[in-house]
Amino acid sequence: MDLRKNTLLNGTLYLLALVGTCLAQLKGLHVLEFVCKPLLMLILSSWFFFNSRRVGDRFTLLVQAGLFFSLIGDVALMFTYVDDFNFLVGLGSFFLAQLCYAFAFAQNIADVGGGMDGILVPLVIAFGIGTYAFFFTWDLMPHLEEDLGIPVVAYVIALTLMGMLSAFRFRRTYPRSFWLVLIGALLIILSDSALAWDRFRFPLRWSPIWIMVPYAIGQFMIAAGGLAHVLDPDNLRRREAMTT
Q: What average pLDDT does range 76-104 have in this prediction?
């Protein structure tokens, strides 16, 4: 058994890293946070890479890139207590992460095609995500520092695009992959909303729980949904048939 691919082992380590991160943030234990928080994306990236490398297509590379930029963002946000500029670094890194996920989902949609089949469901979901993003940004803007307005709006656009494109995978992937990725995207939107509320609007009680738990679960679900898309037996057989 390849331990690098084992979901139970890596999932347990991921959960322990999440618990350690939340505990560190609640108690102000920076050393523990420096150990546990980067481990989240390192464990998830390693598990995703070793399970998906037999495929190695553009979709998996883009998801892997999204995990990488998320790692950079996590590290940058750990140091906002030293210099607030690190918040911008983290925001930029997560902006790139959301674009990578969005491009991955767009690649999936383009590869499968399907025309207008089942278009109503993703249109409704995308409309809901877009409406929420608009009113959330409208409420948030008066509370932002002047130099943060454009970066925050740009990030919200990238995050919204990622969520919308996850919805448009409907009937263009396997149901398990679709729901894992969509719910994961919505959880990341929830996490980022909590982060923005806590930083710019009003402090949230137990904010590390509201921010880190949806974020970690959302990232895991996107990675797991990505694997479900590329490792489905039917999909693998189709790939083999196309290369023989």
A: 94
